[in-house]
Design a protein that fits this description.
heterodimer, A: alpha/beta, Rossmann fold, five-stranded parallel beta sheet, B: alpha+beta, Four Helix Bundle (Hemerythrin (Met), subunit A), Alpha-Beta Plaits, 5 domains, six-stranded mixed beta sheet, 22 helices, 22 strands
Chain lengths: 125, 665
Amino acid sequence: MPRILIVDDSPTIRKMVRASLRPLDSFDFVEAANGLEAIEQVALSPVALIVLDLNMPDMHGVDVLRFLRNHAGSREVPVVVLTTRGDASSRDAAMTAGATHYLTKPFAPQALLSAAQDLLRGAPL
Amino acid sequence: MTQTGSPQDDATFPDFLDDYFAECDEHLTSVRRLLLSLEGSVGRPEINRAVLDELFRHFHSLKGISGMVELRQAEDLAHRLEDFLRVLRQGDALLTAAGMDALFDGTQMLEQVVNVRRSGGTFPKVRDVAARIAQLVDARGVTRGEDLSTTDAEPAPPSTTPLWICTFSPSADLVERGIRVDTVRGRLTGVGEIVNAVPRVSADGSIAFDFLLAAHLDEGTTAAWRVDGIEVTRAPDATQMAAASEPADRDEAETTSPGAAVSSQFVRVDLSRLDELMRSVGDLVIGRARLADTLSRIEPRVPAGEWRAIQEHSLMIDRQLRTLREGIMRVRLVPVGEIFRRMPFVVRDLARETGKRVRLELRGQSTEIDKFLIERMMDPILHLVRNAVSHGIETVDERVRAGKRPEGTIVLSAATAGDIVCLDIADDGRGIDPDAVIERARKAGLTIPSGPADSATLLSLICAPGFSTRDESDRASGRGVGMSVVQAAVEELSGTLSLETEKGTGTRFVLELPVTLAITDALIAKTGPETFAVPQGSVREVIEVAVETLLQVEENEIITYRGAALPIVRLSRLFGLPETTRNRLHVFVVGTGSAAIGIAVDRIVGQREVVVRAIADRLVKVAGISGATDLGDGHVVLILDPAMLARQMRERPDRIIAGARGALA
């Protein structure tokens, strides 16, 4: 089954994201609590979509994103950045680094689900 | 499609409140610890950057998850605190005493808000505190989102420690063997300090991780690592490596914490799952006892050689079961520091309110006790610490007049001895005034014992329901929770509470609790036709007593034991069982000092592991009985609660004991 990777240092948020995306039942969900774990998941096997937090302890989400965009295996994977930082500079930084979509916390489950569905269908947002 | 950032009314996350509370607890515990370590930086130009970063990250996370569960007050407070930390991190502000207070108050308020959401009640007014914090931020003219320039200086590795590059290439095979980037990181952290960790795309397009490690490594270690996919080479030059790995222009503030890397090695487990496991082990223990019972019955019919083999297997299972049980119990243990960490907060606030000067000393914070106990003991300890500040420690004037140091000291310590954990709260304050206690007790309509007012008597008075001390401090120390509740909580956990106090010198409360519940080693005793189990942890000593040495003092029996009077409770009389015809009794000595009593039984028949099943039926519940167990032969045996028996002895057959003691003295 194709996989969706959820990256957030908060276990509560990971659970909420998973619950929001539950209707996508043709996907396996994998979770990572930090940037290195996320990159490891990508190294181990392809993912179809990544939901990525920015402010994480050891490696910032923007750095994770940059790395993913420089790696052949994840260059094209849609990435939804999901972050508490709502200011324009954070958004710009994430989009410049290669984010496909940008959502802020608190997020509406439906908003995340719709974005994920569109991105998985290959539709531009 | 909804608008980004505004949750729909019908689509929030009520199912995740438990996760939210659990995560809040974790963040708040860390925040408290970090704030305390920050207090030494007040007024100094240099503040520990790692601490600020970590604090910032916790508040940031708290803001995020509070927003998700729509707890706006918490979100707002966390947001303000985060802002203030950002200012501090940028070096735009000096951490003043007022700033420190705001951090403490904001955190406490945040905690209150979360607690109200969890347990109900009225939300506190957050506006004043929030405004105070906002003011501190505004004073520096900083607006949100401007901190684009912060980069973290990597911690300099100790110069004498050699540096290594440890390259880990993840693979499905390694994952199969449980080896992942996180476990590798944990392993490296175990032997040295990780200076840096970066992912990299290798020449063949695969992904690898480079860890720069400061450590003393030997050939054996690196060889073992190689087998697990970790290649180790000596680092050519640390600065080069660090520079190469420094990400290009960083666009926003980032928090790094060296300690946080380890956290993902831990698994969070619902306590109820551990309880389930423990219950299964309990069933196993009973099953194994049944097996032993059956075996002993068939022994005569089994040839000696085969019997020995069966015996050996049986003993092996016994040992393994014990290991299993101890293993599960260890999982449930958490450092008592979790309770202690809150205390500096409490003491600090209360000292400020009462204008006293108090120093709190914590000892033995790494002592581990059952998670269940931690939860149950939080309030009692809190109460005792509050009491120590508001009743124990004197005002500065008073102390100086008494020739004491102006600053009072409270020592909170924890230690384990075998299966018992001992929590000790001592202050060097004014001590408990026996006359005042008796006066107060009389007013409250309590029965006052005759004879000297020793510590045990004072304790039983102040723990009596209806006794409460000075009204004005009730709010601070009691919050409606009196000493009676403290004692009840301790006894509910089969623990004991004792008191030592001396007027003018200080007061000390000692709580002794079993490290864990559920399965315990017990002494099995017979009285008449009945069998009882007595938890071994609560037994100080077992002595044999000749019936004729029992001294009848009014309605009680006592013996002279180590130069003092020891009241004896005969189980047979307590439970209305036929008296033994033997002329010697076995006596369990429980409790310490003047609170000690002896529990007399006909004889002790053995010692074994018992599974404690609580008696839930209130109709069946009897004071002095903590539960029941099945010894394996199918018979239910009652487990005695020595602490409760001791208490009953102190309170009910009334003051006669005190009188008897007086007579002997």
